[in-house]
Structure formats: C-alpha cells, structure tokens
Amino acid sequence: MIAARALLFWIALLVAGGMAQGADPRLVPDVSSRAIDIQYSFTGEELLLFGAILYPGQRLPDDRADIVVVLKGPVRPIILREKRRVAGIWVNANSLRLRTSPGFYAIGSSRPIDRLVDERTAAIFELGLANLSMSPSGFSEARKLERFEAGLTDLYRRAGLFYENPAAVEITEGVLYRARIPVPARVPVGTYRAETYLISRGRVLAVASRDVQIRKAGFERFVALAAQRHGFLYGLSAVLLSLALGYGASAIFRRR
C-alpha cells in the first residue's frame, strides 16, 4: 500500500515539476497513511512524512534550504489542576482552563529550530513546544500560565504525546525529504494536520499540509459510539457488568 502511494506520488511529482514556473519554490508533501485505526492490539505506529521541493525552473539555489514537519491535533479545551500537599493529604489547589491545547504535537526538522528562524517567526508558526499557543480562558498571571504550561508539556512529553527531534528530517539531493514521526498507543482520536515548512535564510518560503485521521476501529469503535450516542444505557450496562463480575468473583472465592 505504501509502495503504491509512493509510486503515484512520484508520478504526480514529475508532472508537476514541469509546471513549477512561479517565483517561489513549492512543496509537494504526502504521508504514508491518511488514516490510522486504533484497535485492541494497537501499540503505536510510525508515520512517514515525505515529499519534494519544486524550485522555479528546476534549478537548485546556492543557499541550503531546511525542512520542518509538524503533526498535531486534535485541538481542544482542557482544564489543568495543580495539586498541593495539605496536612499530609494531596488536594486540588489552583486550576487553569486552556482553550486551544493540542492532544498531540510532534515536530521534526533538518536542524534545530533556533538555528532556522528567529523567536518571532517561530511563535507565529508555532514551531516547537515552547511556541505552542494555548490561550487561557480569562485573565491569568504570566507566572501561573508559564507554570501550568510547563507542567502540561512535561506530562505530555513523558506520555509520548509531545515530541521534538531536531534531526528527524533527511533531505536528499536538496529536493527530496522524509521524516518519521512516532505515534504512541495513547494518542487521542480525531483529525490531525501534517504540516511541512520550507525555510531558508530565516524565512518561511512555503507551507503545505495534509490531513490524517486517527480513529477507533472494531470493538473499540462500537464501545466509543455507544458511550456517545446512548450514554445512559452505556453507564447502566457498565454498572450491571461490574456487579455481575463482582458477584461471580465472590462466588468463586466462597467455594474455595
């Protein structure tokens, strides 16, 4: 499947190469899979982001161009709570609601981001974990916001949901590029955006993207749909199943 997709990609590339006559270079990106199915046996996957750079007149520039790839999504609001130890007991203290927090964010580049663009450009395009825009709902102190964002980043990084690799992108002959992005087993379902940035002399010359769907399949999909569409019956079934399992376990132990 991946080989057939790659073959079609390169055929389209050869056709588009003769049409690239604009002043700026263009990106022709693709991904190894447009949809990832999560089943009971899903332990993670590696997504390949690849493509080519089409230069005007098919002439390579003297200056080296770099590539940055980003896979992110789905963006959703989230409530963060900070725990504190009071009288020997851990309790919820401060809380903060973020309106635009990505459930997954992975970035790979041909060189470190701080060597490609300045801080302003990196912030505009949200290149790097330090430049993610997670707007709080309502007013919040700068120190509090930084503390909560740092905690969220550390938590997601350890879970594999935030990922950074400054050497993930390989560029061949100055035209072809590829990067592998690990997708962990705990990745949330939804629509993801695979973005590619062409950067030269501190400027973003071109941007292109592809959508990737991560969805539940099989029995997991059935359970997820049942919980969404029939919440009351799903909850009742879960309670009855728990009672039945508890009664069955107690009966077995009584016989012993």
Word description of this protein:
- There is one protein chain.
- The protein has 256 residues and is α+β, with helices and mostly antiparallel strands.
- It has two domains: 2-217, Immunoglobulin-like (Sandwich); 219-256.
- 29% of the residues lie in helices and 40% in strands.
- The chain contains five helices and ten strands, in the order αβββββααβββββαα.
- It has a six-stranded mixed sheet. Strands 1-3-8-7 form a four-stranded antiparallel sheet, with helices on one face.
- β7 (169-172) and β8 form a beta hairpin.
- α4 (219-229) packs across α5.
- It is globular.
- The N and C termini lie far apart (54 Å).
- The model is unreliable at 10-21 (pLDDT under 50).
- Order of H and E elements: HEEEEEHHEEEEEHH
Q: Count all strands and give the number.
A: 10
In spatial order, strands of the major sheet run: 2-10-9-4-5-6
Count of discrete structural domains:
2
Low-pLDDT parts are 10-21
Amino-to-carboxy terminus distance: 54 Å
Report Rg.
23 Å
Q: Share of helix among residues?
A: 25-40%
Determine the mean pLDDT: 81
Strand proportion, as a percent range, falls in 35-45%
Q: Which structural class is indicated by helix and strand composition? A: alpha+beta
Q: Would you give the CATH topology of the largest domain?
A: Immunoglobulin-like
What global shape is seen? globular
Number of helices: 5
Could you describe the largest sheet, including whether it forms a barrel? 6 strands, mixed
What CATH architecture label of the largest domain applies?
Sandwich
Per CATH, the superfamily of the largest domain is Macroglobulin (MG2) domain
By CATH reckoning, the class of the largest domain would read Mainly Beta
